[in-house]
Design goal:
- The structure is a single chain.
- The protein folds into two domains: 60 residues, no CATH class; 64 residues, no CATH class.
- Helix 2 crosses helix 4 and helix 4 crosses helix 6.
- The protein is 63% helix and 0% strand.
- The chain contains seven helices and no strands.
């Protein structure tokens, strides 16, 4: 799925949703895309038909950037599946237990991941796993905003 070509990468989202709607078999990453889309019905219409040209700027949608949001969902799902970085599963279980809501727990994790990635990008360094885990451990004790 991961490609340096933005349009190719975004095409995976469109094809995954099309395959799901057509009851076609899904690849591993398509399954993750569909799971994220099922949790976000507000984005489903955006992926009903691929745009005739390059996708429009997703920042213009009222929901924000669906590619970024769904991509963070996928990243967190992969982290949970592999416990990478080590310790992420225990934080996932803690957050899920704390809120009793898997989706909201994922959103809290996504906020921590987004902050960690932004920090790394702004400094021109690799993401810091220890800083990410520390952010997860310090995640607010109340319900996340989304």
């Amino acid at each position: 799925m991961w490609s340096g070509d933005r349009d190719t990468l975004r095409g995976v989202f469109y094809s995954a949703w099309r395959h799901f709607r057509e009851h076609a078999p899904l690849t591993g990453v398509e399954t993750l895309v569909v799971e994220a889309l099922l949790a976000h019905p507000e984005y489903q219409g955006l992926f009903a038909d691929p745009p005739p040209t390059a996708p429009a700027d997703p920042q213009a949608t009222p929901e924000g950037n669906p590619f970024l949001h769904l991509g963070l969902h996928i990243a967190v799902a992969e982290q949970i599946a592999t416990d990478r970085p080590p310790g992420v599963v225990s934080e996932w279980l803690r957050l899920q237990t704390l809120w009793g809501d898997a989706h909201r727990a994922r959103h809290a994790m996504m906020e921590c991941l987004e902050e960690t990635l932004w920090e790394a990008q702004s400094r021109g360094i690799a993401p810091d796993d220890a800083a990410y885990l520390e952010r997860l451990r310090a995640a607010p004790r109340g319900r996340p905003s989304k």
